[in-house]
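Translate sequence into C-alpha cells.
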Amino acid sequence: RKLMVAPAAGTTSIWEKGRRYLVMMLSPLEASTEGTIDLAARNGLKTIAVIGALARPAIAKGALEVAKKKGLEVVVHEMFPIGTTDFSAILNKVKAAKPDALVVGAPPADAIAITRQMRELDVNVKVYGATPGGSFPDYQKALGKTAEFVYAGSYWDPGLPYPGNR
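Result follows.
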C-alpha cells in the first residue's frame, strides 16, 4: 500500500500482477502507433502490415488492436528477434501483400535497417510508421531524406506551441 512512481515504465503489463499503487509516467507502448493508424483509417486506407521487435512486443500488440478497432485488415504480422539485421524475408512478405500502411514497432537501429531495406527492395506503402525508432535523432541522422514522411509516436516535442512547453 505504498505509492510507487515508475518513470520509465512503458507498458500496461506492469499492472498484470494486480499492482494498484503504481503510477506510470509515459503513455503505454500499446498506444504508440494509434496516431499513425488513425491517420491511415481517416484517409480511407484499408489494409495494414505490422512488424514488431520481440524486445518490445507491446507496440505490435497495440497496433493490431488499434487496426482492428479502426477497421483495417491486417495482411502481414511478423515479429523478429533481437539481433536481426536482414529483414528482407519479412519485407518481401510485405511487398507481396501490398498493404496500404505499414507500422514497425522497433528501436532506432532496427527501424533504420528496416527503412533502408524497404528502399533497397522497393517496398512502398501509402503510410509508414516506425515507432519509437523513427522519433529518435539517430534515425534522421542515419537516413537523411529517406527519413522524411515517416510517422512515429512521440512523448514530447519542444517545437509544439503549447504554453510552458519549452
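Note: The mean pLDDT is 92.
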